[in-house]
Structures are given as C-alpha cells and as structure tokens.
Amino acid sequence: MLPAKHQTHREKFTTFGGILMLSAWGFAMVIASFLFLYIGNIVDELLGTTPNFMLGFFFLAIILCIWRLYQEAWKKRKDV
After folding, report:
1. pTM value surpassing 0.70
2. What residue ranges do the domains of the chain occupy?
C-alpha cells in the first residue's frame, strides 16, 4: 500500500469504507447481543427456566452476526 500522501482518492475511500463496515458490524453485534439477551430474559421469566433461553439467544445472536459478516466478506472478496 502506498504512503498516505500518495494515495489516490479512491484508495482513501476504500480504506475508510472498510473501517466503516467493520465498525457497523461491531455495533450490530453489540445491539443484537443485548436485544437477544433481553428477549431471552423475558422468555426465561415467563417459563421459569432462568439462564437457558437468555444464553441460547445470546449465542444465537453472536453466531448469526459472525455468519452474516463472513458472507459479506466473502462477497467482497469475489468483487476484488
């Protein structure tokens, strides 16, 4: 990669886009994890199964986010 002062506008935009995409995925993973934890907690309170659904939904959220991130990275790899 070229030094920062010799980068073209397109290379700067591509680098910034990659950083922005990873930040968005990190934000989505945090939001999904807390949302699924909350929903799992509500289901556990209704059914009386204390940590089962909460932990299950939490790990489900993380696995789904990582899977979607992998799919998007695989698609970007094919475009390059």
Report:
1. yes
2. 31-80
Q: Is residue 37 within 8 Å of residue 19, measured between CB atoms? A: no
Amino acid at 53: F
The single residue listed with the structure tokens 């700067």 is 12
Residues recorded for the chain: 80
User: How far, in Å, are 39, 53, 54, 58, 72 from residue 46 at the CA level?
Assistant: 11, 11, 12, 17, 36
> How many Cα atoms sit within 13 Å of 73 on the Cβ side?
10
Kindly report, residue by residue over 59-76, the tens digit of the pLDDT: 999 999 999 989 988 887
